[in-house]
Amino acid sequence: MQQNIIIFCIISCLITTSLAVKGIDIADAFNNFTCFKNAGYQFAIIRGYRSYGAVDPNAATNMKNAQAAGLITDAYFFPCKGKITAAQQVSDFISALGSEEEYSTNGLYGTIWLDVETNPSTGCGWSSSDYTGNCNFLNDLITNFKNKGKLVGIYSSKYQWETIFGSVSACAKFTSLPLWYAHYDNNPSFSDYAKYSFGGWTTPNIKQYNGDQTVCNADVDLNFY
Fold first, then answer.
1. I need a labelling partner for 98 at 20 to 30 A (CA). Which of 32, 54, 77, 146 fits?
2. Distance in angstroms (rounded) separating the CA atoms of residues 110 and 75
3. Is 115 a catalytic residue?
C-alpha cells in the first residue's frame, strides 16, 4: 500500500508539472522571443514602467516581438512613490503605449502587474513608516488604471508585502485582483503558497519560481501558472 501511494504521488507530480504553463518576465530590450517559444515558454511579462518614474522605451517593441513569436503578453509596472503622482504615472504609461495599442489587433498586453517591492531609485521608495500611505498609493494606482479600462494585478512576495505595509495581513483590500507572487524554490507549483501567503489572498494566479536566470542569452525570471 505504501509503495502504491508513493507511485501515485510521483505520477501526480509529473502530471502537474506537464500541465504547467511556463513563462518569463524580462526588463531588457530583446528581439529573439522565438527562442523562448521554442524553449517551451508560453507567455512573457514585459517591463512597461521603470522604477525611477518613466515609461520603458523598449516596452512596445518587446511586446510586439513577443506576440509575433506566439507568446501571450502582459506588462509589469514598477511604480515610483514620491516624485510623481499615481495618476500621472498611469497617464504617462497609457499615453506612451496608446498609439501602439491602436494598431495592435489584440492589444499589446493583457494585465498590468503592479510591482510591489522595495524601490532602489532615488526619490521613489515606499515609506518605511507610513504604511497606510503606502497602501493608499497602491490603491490610487489601481483606481487610475481601472478608470482607464485596464486589467490590473499585483506582483509581490510575503517579505516585500510585510516590509512595505507593516505586516503580511495589512492592506488586504485587493484580493479581487489576480496575484503574481515570488518564491524562489525552483518549483513550478503553488504547493508552497499556504506558507508564504500575504495580503489576504487565498489563491495565487502566477508564481515567479526562479530569478535572474539566463535563457536564450537574456536575463529573465521564470514563472508559471
1. 32
2. 7
3. yes
Reported pTM: 0.91
Distances (CA, A) of 167 to 38, 131, 132, 136, 160: 41, 9, 11, 15, 10
Query: Cell digits for 221?
Result: 525570471
Residue at 224: amino acid letter:
F
100, 117, 140, 192: which one is catalytic?
117
Contacts of 29 (CB under 8 A, 6+ apart): 58, 61, 62
> Buried b vs exposed e over 124-134: b needs ≥16 C-beta within 10 Å?
bebeeeebeeb
Q: What is the pLDDT along the chain (225 residues), one digit of tens a residue?
A: 444 433 333 333 433 445 689 999 999 999 999 999 999 999 999 999 999 999 999 999 999 999 999 999 999 999 999 999 999 999 999 999 987 765 556 799 999 999 999 999 999 999 999 999 999 999 999 999 999 999 999 999 999 999 999 999 999 999 999 999 999 999 999 999 999 999 999 999 999 999 999 999 999 999 999
Q: If you search the block for the grid coordinates 489601481, which residue do you land on?
A: 142
Element (H, E) at 34: helix 33-38
* Residue 140 annotated in active site: no
Contact at 8 Å (CB) between 50 and 56?
yes
Catalytic (active site) residue 101: no
Of the residues 56, 74, 115, 221, which is catalytic?
A: 115
